[in-house]
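Q: Hi! Curious about what carbonic anhydrase looks like structurally. Here's the sequence.
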Amino acid sequence: MSLLNEILDYNEQFVEKGEYVKYRTDKFPEKRMVIISCMDTRLVELLPKSLNVKNGDVKILKTAGAIVSHPFGSVMRSILIAIYELKADEVLVIPHHDCGMASVDADSVVEKMIDRDIPKSTIDTLGAAGIDIRSWLRGFDDVYQSCKNSVEVIKGHPLIPKTIPVHGLIISPETGKLELVVDGYAAEEEK
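A: Let's find out. The predicted structure is below.
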């Protein structure tokens, strides 16, 4: 049985048994915040539990490394929609220690692409078009600096209200312990 069929079979039972009822909520986050976190599998259940959030409490965006790299990319668009359309009043950026993005070797990723039948000519064409794929795929060297950078991309965005606190925290993927890196309230008080 394929993974997809396994998922569909499970889902059919989930719906038939009414197990979805306990997860019902509306689209507006009860705690009025949006969280940008890493897509690491260790955080799927650990992150919400360590923050005391349940279904319906927050909006959670998952990216590799919890990185917000482009002020006009899809992650930033999602943050703006969460604020303006879904009533989020705070933003939390929460990367983690021992992140795979800290060890990403862009050259190795490109080689794996080629090994999986992406023509080298496609990579070359992207480069000729001004897309530095290796820079785009690059991870980070310091999780603290990466967290601060993502906070700055969000906070410095021209469409983010100055009244929105943007916090930066780092989570342990082993224990769920949070470490404060940027206190968005303190940044507001300094103004």
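A: A fun detail: The domain at 28-103+139-189 is CATH 3.40.1050.10 (Beta-carbonic Anhydrase; Chain A).
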